[in-house]
Amino acid sequence: MPDRHRRSRTDTDYPHKWRILVAVGLTLFMGTVDGTIVNVALPTLTRDLNTAFATVQWVVLAFLLGLTVFLLGMGRLGDVIGKKPVFAAGLVLFLAGSLACGLAPGIYWLIGFRFLQAIGASMTLALGVAIVTETWPPYERGRAIGISAGIISLGIAAGPALGGLILQALSWRWIFFVNLPVGLVALFLVITNLPRLAPAGKAPPFDLAGAISIGLSMLAFALAMTVGQQRGFLTAPVVGLLAACVLLLALFVWQERRAPYPMIDLSLFQEPNFSLNLLTGVLTFVAIAGVVLLLPFYLVLVMGLEQRDVGLLMAVVPMVLGVLGPLSGTLSDRHGTRPISVLGLMLLVLGYVALTHLDVNATPSRFVLLLLPVGLGMGTFQSPNNTAIMNAVPRNRLGIASGILSMSRTLGQTTGIALLGAFFAARLKAHAGAPVDIASASPETIVLAMHDQFYLVVGLVAAGLTLALWRWWVERRAPRGVLPLPDATAAEDHS
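and the corresponding structure tokens:
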């Protein structure tokens, strides 16, 4: 049964919704550009700050870990005290962190300021989709969320190119200073146009114990994935971190079931449109993270391309996402989220199968042609899937749902890079017949190991497609009225 929304007198339709979307979009664009821009600057930071590569990696890791710890808590905080004050405070903190990063006198100062920047980013990223969901009516929500997803993708694509231009003309400090003018415009639009979006009635207390336990659990998981890449996933530190993650997660569930006002209403996961779509989204992010990790090595070590050409070819997927995101969102408004997201998953499966035809003699045009279906699939799938997730929760849980959605992307990418990276290393060793580093492996060996990786990714996405098709079959067989259409702006949760 389609989940198409029709206009009614009760639909929320804020008069400044386009200005709100611009403010949220600028903030999301700034955050995604900032992440990819820093990756490009790591060699420059190593040289200018006279530090080792192992240390400079923490400029990226500090930001990732900060997001991991605070995303869910900030999403719930927005539900409790209002989304505008949390979002605006996060934007101010992000800008302050950007300024401090640009002025950092040394590498350890820069790492610390990046963590501060991440706290601000978690406050905006956790609530961005929730704000769009609440300020746009259901019959246009898919388009608005699609535009947001497209902006994120454009930011990812623009980051390396913008970083290269800045580093060529100015010092590395300007990769942080560039946030200031964009952020100030976004902050002005937020202050002047965004309503408070406060909870109805008396605000419930914030579940601090729940926020701490889930934050520490996610931190342990992210650290385990990071350390596991360097030391192996069966070493004592990694096993200890994973055990701590499980124990803290169990403590969190115990706490949430006892708390009168839990941070995460666990009943959300009983709604299939929330939990199954969330799981499917995680699988797609695990898959694409594992593929994007390998393709630059293929372009350099097998095809022999220069770094500037690598950046342009790798921009294919995010550019297609930027174009298709708003279009697929609009289509989901008209035809329902399920058929559009299923189509996207089918394109993804075909795209990853197509990548198994990459070989040692591929040309840049052939590479783009084979990679294009992956971009088409992600661009078609992501917006309707996000819309379905946000439509499945009540209004007073939009903040935490948005935080969970952002967290699923972060953890999916972290897991994909770590676990699929380890799988690729194992397959590289198997095909070479001995332990070998990718830089010294033969092109033929790299291609064979990549094909194994792509087949594994096909299986992951096919599992997500199977879940989506099963859920669609259940919805179509159910008598009308048995599966009520969720409305995130109207539903109420009195827990």
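(Above: one complete record from the training split.) The chain has a mean pLDDT of 80.
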